Amino acid sequence: MEQPDPYKDFTNRLKLLASKYPDLITTTLSNIFTMRLIGNKTHGDLAEIAIAEFINQYMYDFRSIHVGKDLYRAKSRVEDITIINEVTKVEFPVSLKAYGDGPLQLSTDKYSRMFPRLQKESAKVTSKETIATIFNDPAFEEFSHINVLPLIYDEKKQRCNILVFDYERARKQTARIVREDEGRGRKHPVYRFYDGAGDYVCEVRYGGASANALQRGLWTNTKNGLKYFDSVTSGWIDYSHNKILVQLFSHALVSSSAGHKSALEKIREDIVRLKKIAGIRK
After folding, report:
1. Bridge-based pairing state of the strands 124-125 and 103-107
2. Computed from CA positions of residues 39, 44, 46, 47, in that sequence, does the dihedral angle turn out positive or negative?
3. Do 251 and 41 meet the contact criterion of CB atoms below 8 Å apart?
4. 10 Å Cβ neighbour count for 98?
5. Alpha-carbon separation of residue 125 from 9, 148, 177, 197 (angstroms)
6. Is 151 exposed, middle or buried (0-12, 13-18, 19+ CB in 10 A)?
C-alpha cells in the first residue's frame, strides 16, 4: 500500500487541530503578526520558532526542530524547520513563509533550471504531452516536493490564513503555459501557467544573472490562484495585536536571565492551562 506523503499528512493533521482548537492557532498567529509592530520583517523569523514550538506543544504525534540560519544556509534544500513524525519516525523539511495576501514565492529555483527549461519550448505551450514532459523534466523535479507552509496575512483587515499550495492539483490542471514579457513593475519575462478555464495557476520567473531572489524562481499568488490552495485554517481568521507581548519583549531585552527564567516558568504554566482547556495531554 502506498504511503501518504509525510508533509501532506502533517498539514492534514494541522488542519484537524486548527478546526478542533481554533483559539490555539488564532492566539499563535496573532502573536506572530504582532511582531510586525516591532519591524516589518521581524515576524518572518519569529514565525519559524513560533510554529516549531506550536508543533511541539500541541501536536502530540509530531516533533519539530528549528534549523537555524547558519545550518539553513549550509543546506542544499529549502528548510526552516525539521518535522519528525513520532509514529513513523519519518523526518521532512519545511520552509515557513510569512507573506502578505498576494504574490508568494514557493521556490527560489536555486540552480536556475526551470526558466531555461521553459525557454526550450515555444512562447505558448498547449499540448498536454509537452506540458507533461516539462513537469517530468529534472528541472521541475522539486515542483511536487517543496514543503512550504505559508502564513498569509491581510494587515488592513487584520485577518490571516495558512494556505498550502496544492502542487498535485496544479500539475494536473495546467492546460497552458505562456511566456509574458511585459507587465506592471516587471522588467524580466515570466512563464505563466493557466488551467483549462483560463485561471491563473502559478508562474516561473526569470532566473538570469541580473535577477535577484525576488525576480526568479517558482511563484504563485494567493489572490489569483486561490483555487490551488488548501486552507489549513479553513478560511480567513481574524487576529488582533497583542501589545502586552511587545512590552514583554522590550522589558526582556533590558533584564537579566534570572528574570527571563522566572517569566518562562509563568509562560509554561499558561501553556499547561491552555492544554487543559483544550483537552490536550501532550
Report:
1. unpaired
2. positive
3. no
4. 25
5. 33, 27, 5, 15
6. buried
- Residue 153 to residues 160, 181, 225, 250, 258: CA-CA distances in angstroms? 4, 29, 16, 24, 35
Side-chain-side CA neighbours of residue 219 (13 Å): 22
* Beta strands per DSSP E along 155-261: 159-165, 174-180, 190-195, 200-205, 217-221, 229-231, 237-238
Strands, E, within 33-89: which ranges?
Answer: 62-66, 81-85
HSE-up (13 A, CA, CB side) for residue 114: 26
User: Is 132 in contact with 81 (CB distance < 8 Å)?
Assistant: no
How do residues 58-89 score in pLDDT, each as one tens digit?
A: 998 999 999 865 554 444 455 689 999 999 99
- The single-letter code of the amino acid at 59 is M
Alpha-carbon span 106 to 142, nearest angstrom: 10
Q: How far is it, in rounded angstroms, from Cα 162 to Cα 53?
A: 17
Q: Whose CA is closest to 99, among 37, 143, 36, 147? A: 36
Secondary structure element (H or E) that encloses residue 247, with its range: helix 243-252
pLDDT tens digits, 151-199: 999 999 999 999 999 999 999 999 999 999 866 666 788 999 999 999 9
Give the global pTM: 0.89
Can you give 99-167 as a three-state secondary structure string?
EECCEEEEECCCCCCHHHHHHCCCCEECCHHHHHHHHHCHHHHHHHCCCEEEEEEECCCCEEEEEEECH
Query: How many helices (H) and strands (E) are present in the chain, helices listed first?
Result: 9, 13
